[in-house]
Amino acid sequence: MTLKRILLAAAGLGAMMAAVPAHADEIVLRALMEDVPETQIIESLLPDFEKETGIKVEFEKIGYGDMHDKLVSQLVSPQSYYNLLEVDFLWAGEFPAAGWLADLKPFIAKSNYDITPFIPSTLDLLGRTEESLQILPMYNYSMGLIYRTDLLQDPKLQEAFKAATGKELAVPKTLADYVEISKFMKANAGVAGAAMQGQRGDPNSMEFSNYLFAAGGNYLGDGKKVVLDSPEGKVAIDLYVDNIKNGAQQGALSATLDDTLRLMCSGKAFSMVTYWWMLPQVDNAEKCPDVAGKVALSVMPGGHGESGGWGWGIPKNVSPEEQEAAWKFIQWVQSKDVSVARALQGHAPVRADTYTDAKVLEKYPYYKEAQDIVATGKSFPIFAYSAQYEDVLGTSLSQAGGGEVTTEDALKAAHKGLEELLAK
Amino acid sequence: MTGLMHWASREARISWGFAAPGLLLLVIVMGFPLAYACLLSVSSYTLLKPAILPLVGVDNFATMMASERFWNATWLTVKYSVVTVAVQFVVGLGIALMLNRVVRTKPIYFAILTIPMAMSPVSVALIWRMLLQPNLGIVNHLMETMGLPRLDWLGSPNLALWTMAFIDIWQQMSFVVLILAAGLASLPREPYEAAEVDGARGWQQFWFITLPMLRPVAAITVIIQLINEFRTYDLPYVLTKGGPGTSTEVLSFFAYRQAFLGLSINEGAAAAFVLLVIVLAMTVVFFALLEKRAKG
C-alpha cells in the first residue's frame, strides 16, 4: 500500500512538472567564460541584470586553453549544459559549420535590436553573412605593443643605444627596430627585452601573427590563396625567432599570456606584444606597483597587429525558453549603457559609440590609441579548422624557436599546413 | 553420474545467474565504449560531419601511420614510460625496503607518502609549473643562490620531457612504495631466519629471498604503472601542450589533438585504439614471461 502511494505521488509530481511551462525567470543561464578581466567586469554587473529580469546568470571561469574542448563536448551532446556561449573568433568558422549555433537574426528581428552601432569589422570577424548572424560581438582583443616608458627615457640607456646602433632610443616604428631594441634591453637594462608567450598553439600563433602583419605579410591573399611563405613572412619568422632567442625572457617557449603578464607586472621586462586591454592591468598601482605609471601603449611597430574578438552565441541544443533568456542577456550586456559601464572598468568595446563616449575618454584617454589598434588590426585565417591551424603553426614556430628546424623549413611547413587544412 | 552432472550444471547455472548482473554491468561500462571506439576508428565520423557511415576500413589507421608525428609520439611515449616506471620501481623499492625496517613511526611515513597520490595530476602539474617558472619560480631562485645556472625546465626541447617525467615520478612514487611495502610486509619470516642460520648477508637475502618472493607484487606494480604512464595526458596538457615543438607530444596527447583540434573523432579513436593495443600486448607479454619464469 505504501509503495503504491509513493508511486502515485511520484507520478503526480512528474505530471505536474511536465504540465507547468518553464518561465524565463526560473531559468539559470550558464556560460563557460575565459578567466580574464572582461569576464570579471561583466560579473560585477550581473546583479543588475538579475534584478532587472529575474534571470540568474552563472559564469564558470577557466583558462582559454581548456575552453574549446569543454564547449565542444557540450555542443555535440543532445543537451548542452551551457545555455549561453562565449565564442572566440577562432571558432567562428567551426561552430557555425558544425551547426551548433542558433541563428540570431530571428531574435534580432523579433526584439527590434539595433546592431548598427557595432563596428562592422567586429561583426565580420565573427563570421556574419547575408543569410545569418550566429555570433554577436562581445569585446575585441586586437593586439598592440605595451612598453616601459621609464626604460625608453633612461639617459644612460639612450646613450648606450646611440653608441651601439647610431639610432635614437624611441618607440619603434618598424618590426626590425622593435626586435633591435628588445635585444638591446635584454643585454643592457637587466630585464627581458620582450615578455613573449611562446607556448605552442594559441599563444605563439597569436603572437607571431603580429610579427607577420607588422612585416607586411599575410596568411591569405586574393581568392583565399595561401601567401604565408613570402619574403615578408620570412622576415617575420626570422625576427620572431631572433627575439625568442635573444630578446625574450628565459622560458619563453613554454610561456602563456599569464606568464608574460606576471613578468611585465614584476618589472622584469621591457615590453610585451599583447592585447591592448592589458594596459590597465599592468598600469595598476595596486596590482603592479613596480611598473604602474611607467607603461604606455602603441600600435604594433609596422602599423598592423593581430585582431581578434569574442562574441556571444546561443547553442541549438538547449530549450527555446533558455534561448530566449540567453538572448535577453545578450541584448542587455551589449546595450549602450552597459557597454559604457563596462568600458569605465576597462572593457574593450565593440560598439563605436562607446569609444567616443565622453565619460570613457575622460577616464581612459588611451582609448584613442585603442581605437587605432582596432582599426588597423588584421585577422588570423578563420575557417572550420582555425583551432587546428593554430596548433600546426604553433608547432612550426616552437620548433624554429627551439632550434629544431630552420626558419625556412618552419615557414614552409606552416604554409603547407594551412593549404592542407583549407582543402580538408 | 547423471545426477552429478545434473547437479554440476545446476550449480553452473546458479553461478552464472549470480555473476550475470556484474558481467552485464561490465559489458555496459567497458564493452560498449570499447566497441564504439572501435567502430569510430573505422568510420568517417568527424565533429563537422557526425555520421558513422560510410565505413572507411583501415584508412584512418593508414593516415595515422603515414604521419611522422604519430611515430614521434609513439617513440616519446615508450621512452617516457620505460624511464618513469624504471625510476619509480628502483627508487620505490629502496624506500619500501627502508620503511620495512621502521616499526613505530611507519603510519606517519605512510600518511606523508599518500599526499602526492591523493592530489589530482592537474593540480600537481599547476603547482610544479609555478615552482619551475624560469624567471619567478622558486626552483631556479634556489639554484641561483647555490651558484647553479637557471634552467629552462619546460621551455627547452631537450629538457621538457624529462622535467615532465620527474614530476610524474614525484607523484606516482608513493603508489609504488605503498604497494611494494605491503608486499614486503606480507613476506614470510622463515626463509630469512633459515638464511641467517646459513650465514647469508643482507644483500644476499635481498637478492635470493626478497626479490624472488616479491616478484608477483613487483610485476603487478610495474604493469599497472606502465599502463598508467602510457596513458599520460594531464601533465603534457597542463605543462606544455605537447611543446616545445613536439618534444612532449605523447601518444594520448596526439590522440586528443586529432580528435578535438583536428575535429576528427575517427582519427582520434584510431590513435586511442593503437594505444590500447600496445598496452594490451605489453600486458600479455609481461604476464607470459612471468608465468614462464615461474614454471621454469
Task: Give a concise summary.
The complex is a heterodimer of chains A (424) and B (296). Chain A has helices at 2-19, 37-53, 64-75, 94-98, 105-111, 120-125, 149-152, 155-165, 175-188, 202-214, 231-246, 257-265, 279-282, 320-333, 336-343, 352-355, 358-363, 367-376, 386-401, 407-423, and strands at residues 28-34, 56-62, 84-88, 136-140, 143-148, 271-275, 295-298, 306-307, 309-313, 378-379. Chain A is α/β, with parallel strands linked by helices and 424 residues long.
Query: What is the approximate shape of chain B?
Result: flat
Number of strands of chain A: 10
Q: How does the helix and strand content of chain A classify structurally?
A: alpha/beta
Please trace the helix and strand order of chain B, writing H or E for each element. HHHHHHHHHHHH
Question: Which structural category do the helix and sheet elements of chain B fall into?
Answer: mainly alpha
Query: What integer value in Å does the Rg of chain B equal?
Result: 24 Å
Helix content range of chain A: 40-55%
The strand line-up of the biggest sheet of chain A is 2-1-3-9-4
> Which stretches of chain B are poorly predicted, pLDDT < 50 over at least 5 residues?
none
Instruction: Tell me, briefly, the overall form of chain A.
Output: globular
Radius of gyration of chain A: 24 Å
- The quaternary structure here is heterodimer
Q: What's the total helix number of chain B? A: 12
